Amino acid sequence: MIGGTLGHYRIDSKLGQGGMGVVYKALDTRLDRAVAIKVIPPDLVAVDARKKRFVQEAKAASALNHPGIVTIHEIGSDGGVDFIVMEHVDGRTLDALLTPQGMAVADVLKYSVSIADALSAAHGAGIVHRDIKPTNVMVTRDGRVKILDFGLAKLIESPEAIADGPTRSRLTEAGAVMGTASYMSPEQAEGRPVDGRSDIFSFGAVIYEMVTGRRPFDGDSSVAILSRILHDDPAPIARSIPPDLAKIIERCLRKDPARRFQSTADLKVALEDVSHEIVPVRRTGAKRRSWLWLLLLPVLLAGSLLGWPVSRPPEVEEPERIAVTTLIGVEDDPSLSPDGRHVAFMWTGRQQNNPDIYVQLIGAGDPLQLTTDPRSDYNPAWSPDGRWIAFLRADRLPPPSGPVGKVEVWLSPPLGGNERKLADVQVPIIGNPGFLAWSTDSRNLIVTDTPPNGGPGALFVVSLETGEKRQLTHPPPDFRGDSNPAVSPDGRWLAFRRDRVTTADALYLMPLANNLAPGATPTQLTTKAAYPAWTPDSQEIVFTRAREGLFRIGISGTATPVRVPFVGEDGTKPTIVRTQAGHPVRLVYVRRSSDIDIWRVDSAVPGAPASGAPHLAIASTTVDVVPDFSPDGKRVAFVSGRSGSSQVWLADPDGSKAVQLTAFVSGQSGAPRWSPDGKLIVFQSNTEGNFEIYVIPSAGGKPRNITANTANDHVPSFSRDGQWVYFSSTRSGPTYQVWKIPVSGGAANQVTRDGGFAAFEDKSGAHLYYADGPGQTTAVWRLATSGGTAIKVLDRVSNGFAVAERGLCYLDWLLDQPRLRFYDFATGRSTTVASNLGDVEAPLLGVSPDGRTILYSRTETFADLVMIENFR
Fold it and tell me: How far apart are CA 30 and CA 35, in angstroms?
């Protein structure tokens, strides 16, 4: 071959030989440049599988364009000889630079960072090398690194390729062991499918050899070597190296791929961190200037005597707030990986069509979709050993109120793979997705479930090995239940949220004995708390206070909660890890904000399907709710917080010409309703203590209290003759009843006896329609204004309804989605007007005089993940 030609390449010398071919130095006679040519020996050409792998190498490597990867110029064939033409690298392979004592640590890090950078580019292009070893790494004369020989590279199959599996020619079937024995990963040695984490194991073996001068796994035969890779740990590194470098090597060489670095990009960052820590200070000109120290020494000594600072303490990096995700929709339920490099979270995806679990490498790339089940996946929790992400799966996400219901607990490897169902649980607590936590040994999960004999939801320990459940907490019968568990990093404490029926949620603390058994009765740590997360030292808990942000509190029981800086009032659901021992702490949280505005639905005729999608009508950056059309349809009364507190406002139906009608200094005002002549507006306010009913001229003026009473009075409305005001009150007992009072004030008369709330007369004034209570779902009743027996008109209606001329506009739910309906008085039948309403705020609708426009309140929620770097 030497002295001959292949195409227009003249073969000059032999450079080396490997299992996949012989490499020659050659001259490109057209471009007059030196190249390297790799050919398959003639006796192997007939082996079809090898030839295909040879072609695979060229196609895979030619797709890469990186200074650390050898460049492929051409693939060709001449006289039955197949060959690849590559750039010629002037240098030596890494194995030629190794010594029995190992390399200098600075050189180890220099070469390792370059190799990791090149592998990251290959993995990003979907290519796994599968044969990383010192002889496949070239170091040029100027110290640059080049990775050679993608002869065993295997393109990571796309979902489309997998779908075409039966017709696809697979070059490397499961069970085929390929690579060099001493550097193989365990999964490669067993012939299992591999991914980029296999290269990370092989790379770890190379770094180990660079540091120690010996291979981590060696033996008298390939069988002995593979056995040690599968079952033995490498010998400890005897020489002195940075502890973090030793940890990096140890992590690369873990048997379980899920416990290694999950990407070479992360590995590169870790190596760079170590490299930056050991870079020596430049000494340029040190000898030339050494005599200056003799002159300065008296000055420095004097300075020290006078208290001048002659040295500075190491700088402490300040906390920094960094955006982690800025995706469309809502990203929720974050959980940091044990190394702090990745975060798992729930997201409904780019199409906003289904909640699934995603994994995001912090600081780079798009999120990886971990689950694809058509049901709702949420509340991911990363195991402390990094092997699993636990999550909940249900038919739907928890609603804002009402029990969560049946939920399944699942496990998934962090980078995808075979999911495993662990347990079924029944969650009786009001909607709140924080129900999962891991034990420190990653052998058990703590989850909210219903006790066998019923009662409040309690925390249970679920074994990963057996799936068996054991009750851990026992909330009293008058509580809603326990949720939001969090085990301290030292395994000695359990923090959790305990909900009462009537008071604010509280944070409880319980010591843990061996095997996750209660060490003592739980004690209350603080109130108004949810979603606890432990600091790495197990001494403090960071938690959420609704609409106030994140707070922290010591576990001594005597501390006062302190607000976490750098986090606004929209911060919630913290997750905390220390990336490495001695390194800064990362805190990731959800930055959640919501805005409630008034939306409108238009129909050609009352009760007909909407003529278009709902669209925004009246909006601001604060709350705008509870709309009511004026009798002429030209103005809308509504409640808004745009002036700093809840007040009554007026605006045109498109939100323009907005004016503030009430201006109480204290309290909250709401539920405005127009008089039939449009001259007055009645509303409720608690400016004087209890909620009372007030009347104010629609043109502006002084409000007048018409119901001075010690009970709470709510949701007023005018009778059709304008003489009376209906309202809901607890004057006669704990149950709300409908009352009425003259507009001028005076004695109030009770209208209902069996419960009643939010009452409105129809346009004729002959009937009164009302809900049976203030609950989320109620019935609607009709009562003749002349008296008699009430008749149920509708069942299971949200208390958001309004009386139109020809019927009732109301909200109900179908398959957990709100829809706008119209009940026709004449036919007694309901039709659906619209069902794509978004997140509806139910209380009270507004309907135009002609019945063709319906106003309702809708919440728009925005949530992204934010990180506090260097949290302390």
Answer: 12
